[in-house]
Amino acid sequence: MKRKITLKQIAKELDVSISTVSKSLRNSLEIGEETRLKVQAFAKFYNYKPNNIALSLKNRKTKSIGIIIPEIVHYFFSTVINGIEQVANENGYSVVICLSDDSFDKEVLNMEMLANGSIDGFIMSLSKETQYKGDFHHITEVINQGMPVVMFDRVTNDILCDKVIIDDKAAAYEAVQSLIDNGRKKIALVTTVDYVSVGKLRTDGYEKALLDNGLPFNEDLIIKIEDVDTCEITISQLLHDRAFDAVFAVNELFAVTIIKTASKMGLKVPEDLAVIAFTDGIISKYSTPSITTVSQSGEKMGNKAAKMLIERLEAEHVDDDEENENYTTEVIETHLIQRESTD
Amino acid sequence: MKRKITLKQIAKELDVSISTVSKSLRNSLEIGEETRLKVQAFAKFYNYKPNNIALSLKNRKTKSIGIIIPEIVHYFFSTVINGIEQVANENGYSVVICLSDDSFDKEVLNMEMLANGSIDGFIMSLSKETQYKGDFHHITEVINQGMPVVMFDRVTNDILCDKVIIDDKAAAYEAVQSLIDNGRKKIALVTTVDYVSVGKLRTDGYEKALLDNGLPFNEDLIIKIEDVDTCEITISQLLHDRAFDAVFAVNELFAVTIIKTASKMGLKVPEDLAVIAFTDGIISKYSTPSITTVSQSGEKMGNKAAKMLIERLEAEHVDDDEENENYTTEVIETHLIQRESTD
DNA sequence: TTTCAACACTACCACGTTTTCGTAAACCAA
DNA sequence: TTGGTTTACGAAAACGTGGTAGTGTTGAAA
């Protein structure tokens, strides 16, 4: 078990100074060829690699970016990570991931932990609790310290920073419109509780689509679900009354539960009940029937978010004083993926 | 935009030495109460937090662990990460994630990148390509440098280190046995190509269960699939011939594809065809019919792996010279989750 | 012989922290 | 006053790196 070799050890071994070694390895012309080659050979033999920590300390750059997301066991979020990681890796960055578990405290803790030098910038999606509380001091603080933050998907207007989102409202509108186009009249919306920003926006799109088509906007058809487990009961009741002939669910878990419930009750999808879900994921694809979804390319979001962050990081390098904080909000386009749950 | 404050700045501001500040903040009795409180108040006001990078350099500990997995958009792996993250966080560690994309080169690159001081230890699952090549020099190298490695799920006997696995053979045996118990005679095995270690083991368990029950082991019933896309064609052909009445699939993607194919052909699951899948995931749960699976608790694996790594990290602290490398291999228990795809 | 440039390398500083050692001042006992 | 102890703090090294500035030697031109 040999510890990693350092410049100092090489220097000692070859009886030259540390700086000579350093310069030799960087091929500086200051160093004579003989010495240079000797050092390089030695370094290669002992597999010298500069210590990242020391470099980070010196350069005040860690070349790693922090990701904070509510949970990782979630198709959408893992695709986003995938997207971030791709771009990060291409640019020589590593990725540090922390999970907030949808808890405000954990989000704050994780941010503080990473903000103390561990990373160069953040990419994050807000936890439910944070959105509920509306307390973003931990984020502003980080930003004030000059650490760039890019938010995605679950964002807030209360924070000025780069953002990557999809046009939730427009996408919801499109989905509901397609249901209407297929002759559906009573379209239910199955959504989460309001404080999750995206839930609100999708509801808005749903409402607008109905009104634009002269259909009544009926509060009773908006089913707010906090917990997936309660979904089945609520749904079966409404299905029993045949209260609707189509469902727009804000996520695929709701959608698949609805389909399963409907099937149990002898209803046919899509004949008796058409279903569209937000967030294209693995469940929709493999459900029976497979579910028509609004694609929400997590990978693209991740790509974009990483690009924005890295651009800002490298730009900062150049002009440090000039505070040109022209934050942008990037909108990733969505489209409907037609599958078996709609006709 | 104020940069984070440092000890030096505090020292300068209060006109004391850096050491005085450091000691005051650590509540050293060496420092007089007046000075101590003054420093503490000042530090609190400016929200001083020690710089992690500097601490890492000093302590030769980064308090972060590196995870290298083939892909993240994969239910099993994300549950493992979840498990790792839980334990890591509890013990004050962060988690750095790199994806090998099932590529040998990326795996090597990522390891080298992280090994240069960025992390204290690795938790990893081998990429397919690495298993195929059988080249593990990058891992031995890291281990030789004194950096602990814990492997999980896709492991190799060629490396001496701590491991967390499930008893793939026994689990496969149990699954196949349960099919036999239900009166199935012609049980097909749908598996991946051999070089993925777990695929081999599961095949062994399958074979043993058949032989132990006096059933013929028929090579024709072992269907090796490299790509999910080709799965459907292969399967439909065999289903057409009614070559088997039960399927044991080594992952849930295969299983759900088989079920879908069978349904299309008018076969009923489980009446005409019973299906069991390895790797309990989200698809199995929400498939129609839902799929009986061998649970493979990724979370538990992650927990265990993290525990083992951290234990070793903290232990190393104590006895540095004494090389007590009593590596252990932890076996996580599995059990069958009965669902609708079997009777 | 002096001067000056080129060469080959070394010294030193900074990054932020902790820790060991040192020491000045104050106090006390003899 | 002397010697010794305590109190309260400071200086400096160390972790590993990289850049700037500096130093000493050599050889050649003036």
UniProtKB/TrEMBL annotation, chains A, B:
GO terms for molecular function: DNA-binding transcription factor activity; transcription cis-regulatory region binding. Gene3D superfamilies: 3.40.50.2300, lambda repressor-like DNA-binding domains (1.10.260.40). The keyword Glycoprotein does not apply. PROSITE patterns: HTH_LACI_2. Keywords: DNA-binding, Transcription, Transcription regulation. Transmembrane segments: none annotated. SUPFAM superfamilies: lambda repressor-like DNA-binding domains, Periplasmic binding protein-like I. The keyword Transcription applies. It comes from the Bacteria. Residues 5-59 form the HTH lacI-type domain. This is LacI family transcriptional regulator. It comes from Flavobacterium pectinovorum.
